[in-house]
């Protein structure tokens, strides 16, 4: 098993965190005072700062502090003085919000521009129109807002009550909205709407029954009338339950299909969903369910899951047959070419397998590296670039952006960046990437490289960043630095203020509950989510968490990655009954995100290893076999290959 010991790093980059200058420290202090409305402190600070480029941010902060007094004229003057500033939009939004908050309806209505980002502000708009007697078309506008499957803010209640008082709330509208709330599984609003009906149709009671206990409700539906409403609600619940309980639904659906005259489209949707989610559980009827689908439903997703099902059972003849039946655009993708090669080798056609692997080994990705390992070939890693153009004059907004970045005012910096970046040509943007790298704004470097299509500029796309901090914590916890760098590249693209949809934060994307637990174990004081945007703190917790996962999963790299992405309990679930071969195991993980996560991280590790050591460890060295059902892990595909480093070539 691989030992995760810190190597000597030959490439050292300057520390990312630079001490602020006296001028920058004064600005931050004055900016904080301005947000509190301390005009005297701001006046004193501005005298000392003189020509500092962010002086207008102090004026902005003062305006923000007194927005409740509606400083319209001062805001207009600010906009004239700073016509391109992104702060203008902020001030307009704050001023509009404040007029609504204080019920200054005439002013609010004159400024409100149907801001779809805020339901509350739209509710204020409706309320303001009632208060100002601007009633033309209002009833329909309120109906359009009310007709929503989701719950709406309490600020809408006044408008809804007025609308209802005008006689607009009918059973037909209630029924229409109940269908919307049912589709998003909003049971509390569904029950409330049903209670408002004067005459409740039987199908509404059926909706409530289905939402309370879906499987029991579907069983009960076998005695319901076969009418349009019942068909529709049974169809939607059957499709939903086909995802959650594919085995049970496979049996029940046959009865439901006999009871209700579903359309061909409805039948196909339920059966396709059932087949796909049966596949993720590798249920015995998976292939039969897929084969029974009409030809129009045999798309790329169905093809892919048929292959995974056969891989799971190591039915190599059917793996090959299914890949061969794929349309060319799918079959020729690197992943399916790899599995085509693996299947050919397994059934004895080694010459054709070698031909596929040799060609695939020219790809700089997970599948290319695996193919090279099977053939004991060098890795193909070529670098390419476009010649940067010197930026004759940096747009002022970009100068502001870099200054704000150094001040750790990242959100403000990003808005300034967007304005300035649009003014540059491609050569200038490439030059900007070098400058951003030098200043440590790594996620912007990655974005520029992606925008320019410079995927092979590895030195910029894979920054050797925060090396002091990473070296410190990885040495303590006996983890390789480029393992951590690979995770950060995938998790946050080196964006310290990154926040995911699951509210994971910072460089290593930690959630609040995990951060609390890790802080307690390390004896650190945890001050809340915002602390996770501090790079040093985030790295300290994230690297310690990696150590915990390596300990929990007996130093198995792929289990650590799977648990970091999908959760520790899921990784443990996938140790029961799954294939032991690491490439098959990774391909047959039910979660698409986790499959992609593992392949991307392993690709990152090879690139980082190459950047640091020039001859990277082969990707298979990170891929021992799996201890499924208690079996012992061993090197894969064999001791000789797994222990090698790879030479690097560029034949393109």
How much of the residues is beta strand, in percent? under 5%
Give helix % range: 55-70%
Strand order of the largest sheet: 1-2
Stretches where pLDDT is under 50 for at least 5 consecutive residues are 1-17
Q: What name does the CATH topology of the domain at 467-649 carry?
A: Lysozyme
Annotated CATH architecture of the domain at 467-649: Orthogonal Bundle
Radius of gyration, CA atoms, in whole angstroms = 30 Å
The number of helical runs is 37
Mean pLDDT level: 95
Beta strand count: 2
Biggest β-sheet: count, sense, barrel?
2 strands, parallel
Kindly name the structural category.
Answer: mainly alpha
Shape: flat
**End-to-end separation:** 35 Å
CATH level 1 name of the domain at 467-649: Mainly Alpha
Task: Please characterize this protein's 3D structure.
Helix content is 62%, strand content 1%. It is mainly α and 652 residues long. Among the domains are: 170-297; 309-380, Alpha Horseshoe (Serine Threonine Protein Phosphatase 5, Tetratricopeptide repeat); 396-455, no CATH class; 467-649, Lysozyme (Orthogonal Bundle). A two-stranded parallel sheet has the order 1-2. It is flat, with a radius of gyration of 30 Å.
């Amino acid at each position: 098993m691989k030992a995760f010991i810190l190597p000597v790093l030959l490439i050292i980059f300057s520390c990312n965190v630079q001490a602020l200058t006296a001028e920058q420290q004064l600005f931050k202090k004055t900016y904080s005072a301005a947000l509190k409305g301390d005009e005297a402190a701001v006046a004193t600070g501005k005298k000392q700062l003189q020509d500092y480029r962010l002086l207008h941010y102090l004026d902005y902060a003062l305006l923000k502090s007194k927005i409740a007094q509606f400083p319209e004229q001062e805001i207009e003057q600010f906009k004239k003085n700073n016509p391109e500033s992104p702060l203008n939009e902020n001030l307009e939004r704050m001023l509009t919000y404040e007029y609504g908050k204080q019920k200054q309806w005439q002013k609010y209505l004159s400024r409100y521009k149907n801001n779809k980002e805020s339901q509350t502000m739209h509710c204020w708009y409706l309320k303001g129109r009632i208060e100002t007697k601007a009633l033309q078309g209002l009833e329909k506008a309120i109906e359009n807002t009310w007709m929503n499957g989701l719950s709406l803010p309490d600020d809408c209640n006044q408008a809804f009550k007025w609308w209802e008082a005008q006689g607009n709330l009918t059973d037909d509208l209630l029924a229409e909205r109940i269908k919307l709330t049912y589709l998003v599984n909003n049971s509390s609003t569904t029950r409330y709407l049903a209670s408002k009906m004067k005459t409740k149709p039987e199908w509404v009671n059926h909706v409530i029954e289905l939402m309370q206990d879906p499987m029991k409700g579907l069983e009960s539906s076998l005695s319901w009338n076969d009418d349009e409403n019942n068909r529709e609600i049974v169809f939607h619940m059957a499709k939903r339950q086909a995802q959650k309980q594919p085995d049970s639904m496979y049996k029940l659906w046959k009865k439901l299909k006999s009871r209700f005259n579903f359309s061909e489209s409805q039948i196909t949707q339920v059966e396709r969903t059932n087949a796909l989610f049966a596949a993720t559980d590798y249920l015995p009827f998976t292939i039969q369910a897929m084969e029974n689908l009409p030809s129009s439903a045999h798309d790329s997703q169905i093809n892919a899951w048929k292959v995974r099902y056969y891989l799971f059972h190591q039915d190599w003849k059917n793996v090959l047959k299914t890949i061969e039946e794929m349309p060319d655009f799918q079959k020729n993708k690197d992943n399916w070419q790899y599995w085509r090669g693996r299947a050919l080798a397994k059934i004895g056609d080694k010459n054709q397998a070698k031909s596929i692997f040799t060609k695939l080994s020219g790809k700089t990705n997970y599948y290319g590296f695996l193919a090279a390992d099977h053939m004991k070939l060098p890795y193909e890693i070529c670098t390419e670039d476009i010649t940067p153009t010197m930026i004759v004059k940096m747009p002022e907004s970009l100068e502001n952006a870099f200054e704000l970045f150094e001040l750790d005012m990242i959100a403000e910096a990003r808005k300034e960046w967007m304005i300035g970046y649009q003014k540059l040509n491609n050569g200038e943007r490439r030059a900007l990437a070098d400058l951003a790298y030098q200043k440590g704004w790594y996620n912007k470097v990655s974005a520029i490289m992606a925008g320019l299509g410079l995927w092979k500029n590895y030195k910029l796309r894979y920054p050797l960043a925060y090396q002091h901090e990473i070296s410190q914590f990885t040495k303590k916890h006996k983890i390789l630095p480029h393992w951590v760098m690979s995770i950060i590249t995938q998790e946050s693209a080196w964006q310290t203020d990154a926040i995911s949809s699951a509210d994971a934060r910072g460089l290593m994307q930690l959630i609040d509950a995990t951060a609390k637990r890790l802080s307690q174990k390390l004896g650190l004081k945890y001050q809340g989510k915002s602390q996770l945007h501090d790079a040093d703190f985030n790295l300290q917790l994230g690297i310690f968490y990696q150590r915990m996962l390596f300990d929990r999963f007996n130093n198995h790299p792929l289990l650590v990655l799977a648990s970091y992405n999908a959760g520790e309990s899921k990784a443990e679930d996938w140790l029961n009954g799954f294939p032991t071969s690491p490439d098959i195991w990774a391909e047959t993980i039910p979660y698409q995100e986790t499959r992609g996560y593992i392949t991307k991280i392993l690709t990152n590790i090879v690139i980082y290893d190459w950047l640091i050591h020039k001859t990277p460890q082969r990707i298979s060295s990170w891929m021992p076999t799996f201890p499924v059902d208690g079996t012992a892990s061993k090197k894969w595909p064999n001791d000789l290959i797994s222990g090698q480093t790879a030479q690097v070539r560029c034949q393109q």
